[in-house]
Amino acid sequence: MSNWVNVLGLVITVYLFTFLMMFVISPEQDNDRMSIWLGGTLILIFGYGFIVWLGFLTAIILLDIFLIVPSRIRLKEKLLLEWLIIILPFIYWAFEYDYWLWLMLATSFLITQIIRKNKIESIIKT
Fold it and tell me: Which stretches are transmembrane (predicted)?
């Protein structure tokens, strides 16, 4: 229904994170920075992150089916609960592997859940 908002938000976050890290980690390599950024981020999202994407999408769809589809009462609380359940592995991975993209993804997911709430409410009203 509105899960595309979450997916788009996470893809944008990965691109922003890798763009910033491109300057922080290797500022001396100027030769082909933009193509490495664009291509490398796609590999990061669809190669390395493919299993994470599958888990994320499966979790969000299942939680939607069990929390939101039966009743849309208290939608905000349900979306926040969904966010909390899904980000727990992200937080763990951030500290376990010192990879701070997970924290940015958790924050991005919270923002997209708020946007998603507004989209769901507008769909309900029409």
Answer: 7-25, 37-67, 79-95
Domain extent, residue 23, equals 3-125
Contact 103, 91 (CB under 8 A): yes
Q: By C-alpha distance, which of 56, 61, 77, 67 is closest to 10?
A: 56
pLDDT in tens, 25-72: 665 666 677 777 788 888 888 887 888 889 999 999 999 999 988 888
Number of domains the chain contains:
1
User: What global pTM score does this model have?
Assistant: 0.84
Report how far residue 93's alpha carbon sits from residue 120's, in angstroms, rounded to the nearest whole number.
Answer: 30
